[in-house]
Design goal:
- By secondary structure, the protein is of the alpha/beta class.
- 43% of the residues lie in helices and 21% in strands.
- The chain is built from 11 helices and 9 strands.
- The protein has a 7-stranded mixed beta sheet with strand order 2-1-3-6-7-8-9, sandwiched between helices.
- Helix 1 links the parallel strand 1 and strand 2.
- Helix 1 runs parallel beside helix 9.
- The longest helix is centred in the middle third of the chain and has 24 residues.
- The two termini are 15 Å apart.
């Protein structure tokens, strides 16, 4: 019987569309093929597209996001750039979400949804189901890929609104500080896991450079990603596009089209990271 695994790309949206598309078109197909040869069914989901529209409208987007992570806690993959991301307010989270994940009270209004997901992967929030408190283990394999910031100095104002924390206004510096703090937490947990004898969880951290196309419209990348994801999932791209309509992206040019890690492609590095993790996690499928 085949083993089924789900992976989900975690990261901010507008500044990471190049990476979203790259992962979907270049990395996932090769990983899926590799897994298929070893009786493992690999599924890719994007929580932003999979959550019901009514949930997004009724303050349950965060609940759906966390439950997608809980659906398969084998792998957690996160790509991050220089944008901190959306910080949910109290009005963005309904009572049901806080009933199921009561520890969220400490984080709503203070950290981004990307950081909340990262913490839930590495230091899982307590979950309440049928009145019972459930404590989950950290994900088995967490991969963090950080885009280097050298490109920022060459961005124009409109591009900085997408790729940095400039859109946060007076809180721009806070966004930069919070990004640094979030990375520090990842390294701290990585060290914690390394000290625990027999720890079944690992954290891999890498930094990469992006290859920039200054004439590529962000909206075109979004459209291509949406179309590719719709084909993968058998959904309507027109339906999915409604979830990603955003004024900031309309007409803005400039996006990443390829990615390098030293003298290798990010594709080769990520696939190698996943292959090693798969063999370590499911040795019975690789005899």
């Amino acid at each position: 019987m085949n083993k089924h695994i789900t992976i989900m790309f975690n990261g901010t949206i507008w500044d990471m569309l190049g990476e979203y598309l790259y992962f979907l078109k270049e990395i996932f197909p090769e990983l899926k093929d590799f897994c298929g040869k070893h009786a493992i069914d690999l599924e890719y989901i994007d929580s932003s597209y999979e959550m019901p529209i009514e949930d997004a409208l009724h303050q349950r987007a965060l609940l759906d996001y966390l439950e997608f992570i809980d659906m398969d806690r084998t792998f957690f993959v996160c790509f991050r750039g220089q944008r901190y991301g959306w910080i949910p307010t109290a009005g963005d989270v309904d009572g049901l979400t806080l009933d199921i994940y009561p520890e969220l009270v400490k984080y709503v209004t203070s950290i981004s949804i990307t950081d909340i997901a990262m913490l839930h992967a590495l230091r899982p929030f307590c979950k309440i189901e049928d009145g019972e408190e459930i404590r989950m283990d950290p994900v088995k394999h967490a991969f963090f890929y950080y885009r280097n910031a050298d490109y920022v100095k060459d961005l124009n104002h409109c591009q900085k609104l997408i790729y940095t924390n400039l859109s946060m206004g007076d809180d721009e510096d806070v966004g930069d500080i919070n990004l640094a703090k979030a990375k520090d937490i990842v390294f701290e947990i990585k060290r914690e896991f390394a000290k625990i004898e027999g720890c079944e969880s690992e954290v891999i951290v890498r930094h990469y450079d992006g290859i920039w196309d200054n004439d590529l419209k962000i909206a075109d990348v979004l459209r291509e990603y949406t179309t590719e994801y719709a084909k993968l999932r058998g959904q309507s791209p027109k339906h999915l596009m409604r979830l990603y309509e955003h004024e900031d992206c309309k007409g803005t040019k400039g996006c990443f089209v390829d990615f390098k890690f030293e003298d290798k492609s990010v594709k080769d590095i990520v696939i190698d990271d996943f292959k090693k993790a798969l063999v370590a996690e499911f040795p019975e499928y690789f005899k």
